[in-house]
Specification:
about 280 residues, mainly beta, 25-stranded mixed sheet
Length: about 280
């Protein structure tokens, strides 16, 4: 009887440890109060300049200047989809809360666009609702640049937080990207951070933190990976099997907490020379 009692106690203890581990993984250390924050942004949106290049439709705003290199500033709250259609447009977020509850991207860029968080402001791009495709809260077509010196929060409850062919992060702000347990915080073909960038980037609560079909190249910045199944991943699509995959970390600081695995890429295609890792 003593032997069976010991075995039973051992099983109970093992189950306790397992449940503790699962609870630790399912409850993120870093939480952001997405919904309750929304009330402080009011119910109106302001876009400047408010000229003929900005058109309002049902659940949709289109920004389409006739020439490139135009800058727009968005403030306040909007529930719907904002679409940027012209190449090299800069969208400055000045205490903006952009939300889509219809299963679509809250901010969609069909050409190269830069999203910049204004200094001293806190901004949100959030998407949820039913979606029949793997979409993101911030959706890019090709090149998508994220920067500024303010705070930017991007949460994609529909699948990914950010998605574009090529994603580049710069600036000196603080950025939070949160996808889902099926999607990625950032999903792209190439992900790039150049030298001498001093931002803080939080990658949260996603299946894949940063997932690139081809390459991840990081030369600077401060990254915080919290509660992801996989922090860094390169994974080719079926149409790009012939192209090599590579993760190259030539600088930057990487804080990791409760990620099941740090990286996944081709054999011998991971190089973290010059980077600093801190396990919390």
């Amino acid at each position: 009887m003593k032997k069976y009692a010991f075995v039973l106690l051992s099983v109970v203890f093992a189950l306790f440890l397992l449940s503790s581990c699962l609870k630790r993984y399912s409850e993120p250390k870093l939480k952001i109060d997405w919904q309750n924050t929304r009330a402080s942004y009011g119910n109106t949106i302001t876009i400047e300049p408010a000229d003929g290049s900005v058109s309002f439709g049902k659940n949709q705003i289109i920004i389409a200047p006739q020439t490139e290199n135009q800058t727009y500033t968005i403030s306040g709250y909007y529930n719907g989809q904002i679409i940027s259609k012209t190449k090299n447009t800069v969208i400055k977020l000045n205490n903006a809360y952009l939300e889509s509850t219809l299963g679509k991207a809250a901010l969609k860029c069909t050409a190269k666009t830069e999203i910049s968080a204004v200094n001293g402001t806190t901004n949100f791009i959030v998407a949820d609702g039913k979606s029949f495709s793997k979409r993101a809260a911030l959706q890019g077509k090709k090149d998508l640049v994220i920067g500024g010196s303010g705070i930017l929060n991007v949460k994609g409850d529909i699948y990914h937080a950010v998605e574009a062919d090529d994603v580049k992060i710069k600036g000196s702000g603080t950025y939070y990207f949160e996808g889902t347990r099926k999607g990625s915080a950032i999903n792209c073909e190439t992900f790039t951070v150049e030298e001498d960038k001093n931002f803080n980037c939080y990658i949260l609560n996603s299946r894949d933190g940063i997932k690139a079909d081809r390459t991840i190249l990081i030369k600077s910045g401060n990254f915080y990976f919290y509660d992801n199944a996989l922090a860094l991943k390169t994974s080719l699509s079926k149409s790009n099997k012939s192209k090599p995959r590579q993760i190259t970390l030539r600088g930057g600081t990487f804080h990791t907490f409760n990620n099941q695995k740090l990286y996944m890429t081709d054999k011998d295609a991971y190089d973290a020379t010059g980077s600093t890792f801190i396990v919390e």
